[in-house]
Amino acid sequence: MIAHQNPIELDGTYPLPEAQLYRFLFHILVDYPSDEEERQIMELVTGDTEPQVEPVLNGPEILELQHVVRRVPVAEHVFDYARRLVRMSRPGRPEATDFVNQWVEWGAGPRASLFLILAGKARAILQGRYYVSCDDIEAVALPVLRHRIICNFAAQSEGITPDEIVRRLLASVPKTEKLD
User: Fold this and answer.
1) d(CA 108, CA 103)
2) Is residue 108 within 8 Å of residue 150, measured between CB atoms?
C-alpha cells in the first residue's frame, strides 16, 4: 500500500495517527522535481499523448519475490546492528544516548527492527548480493525509522528532526564489530 499527502492540500484529509503511520514500512520524503524532471512533467501533462501502462509483474510473481527476500541470510552481527539502532532510539532505556534522552518523546518499537532487516534484505538483492550487510541497514534506516521516532518539544524548539536523530544514531553505533 502507498499513501501520500500533499502538505498544503489537506482539505478533506487528516494526518494519520502515529499508530497507523507506524505500520508503513517506509516514510519517503519527496521533494520538488529537478529542472529537467519538471520540464518532462510539463511536456507529458500538457501534451496529447496517452501513456501506455503495461504490467511488469503478476500476483504470483510478487509473492515469489517476497519469499526470495525472506530467504536472504543475515549474519548475527547485522541483526545486532539493527537491534542496537532501534533500542538506542528509546528514551529512558539503558541503551539510550544522551541526545535521545534529551530530544525523543517516543522511540522506535520492535516493528522497526523487523523492517530494517526486511528492507536490508531487499536492498541486498537489488545490489546483486545474497547476504545483508550493515551498510544495507544503514541505507534503509532513514525511511524505516523517521516516522517511528517522535521528537519532544525540546527537539522541535531546537529544530531537531527525527532524521537528525537517526543520523546521530547511525554515527553512534559501530557497524563492524559484534554487538552485545
Assistant:
1) 14
2) no
Q: What is the pTM of this model?
A: 0.80
Residue 119 domain boundaries: 18-172
CB contact at 8 A, 16 and 27: no
Count Cβ neighbours within 10 Å for each residue of 134-164 and write b for 16 or more, e otherwise. Answer: bebbbbbbbbbbbbbbbbeeebeeeebebbb
Q: Which three cell numbers stand for residue 118?
A: 526486511
Q: Which three cell numbers stand for residue 24?
A: 508503513
> Are the CB atoms for 136 and 88 separated by under 8 Å?
no
4-38 confidence digits (pLDDT tens): 566 565 556 666 666 666 566 666 666 788 999 99
Q: Residue 117's domain is classified under what CATH number?
A: 1.10.8.80
> Using CA atoms, how far apart are residues 176 and 11, in angstroms rounded to an integer?
48
The DSSP 8-state label assigned to residue 33 in this structure reads P
Distance CA 70, CA 121 (A): 7
